Amino acid sequence: VGGSSGSGVVNTGTAGQIAYYATDGTTLTATSSIFLSATTKNYVGIGTTTPAYKLTINSDNGTDNLFQIATTTNQGIFVVTNQGYVGIGTTSPTSRLDVFGNLTLSGTAPQTISFTGGSKIFDSSGKLSLQAGGTATGTNGTASIYFLASTGVSAGRFEAASSSSSTYLATGGTITYSSGYAIHTFTSNGT
Fold first, then answer.
1. Cα 91 to Cα 65: distance, rounded to the nearest angstrom
2. Which of 35, 36, 73, 136 is the most buried (most CB within 10 A)?
3. How far are the Cα atoms of 53, 60, 64, 69 from residue 81, in angstroms, in the given order?
4. Per-residue pLDDT tens for 143-184?
């Protein structure tokens, strides 16, 4: 089989298909679903004969996960489903990114989660700020949580209500204007 160059003809297969030894360890066969690009040799395809990228993975049945990193005791380390959902800590993610467990954002402050509608959630110096669309026009003060005014809303307003209650805001302390004047101090029974 081949000479000093290490090449030769062994059976036949599809161009670019990686052959392997069958279970007896002596018969070389070309029935794998792993291919090298016939035109760009550093492209590898799994489940495709024409990989278009450094690594291209195609499912042949529409139900298998496309990619999975696992151990014998932890199958959900990292998963990419055939729908493009990414799971960390779960084998069955139900959204574009599904994390089972804690999630930490780190780096230079502020760490920010941005939405295409313009809203943002960000942390700066241990203070949590929520911005509803547009560009922030408000600034953080000394509180722990902020609802910032922005060009997307007329003011940094907060409203919380449920369909089963007429209560819009509940607190066990004092509600104040930004100018410092107390509106009302609520008791434990809400009066």
1. 9
2. 35
3. 18, 13, 7, 12
4. 677 777 677 665 555 555 545 555 555 555 566 665 656 565
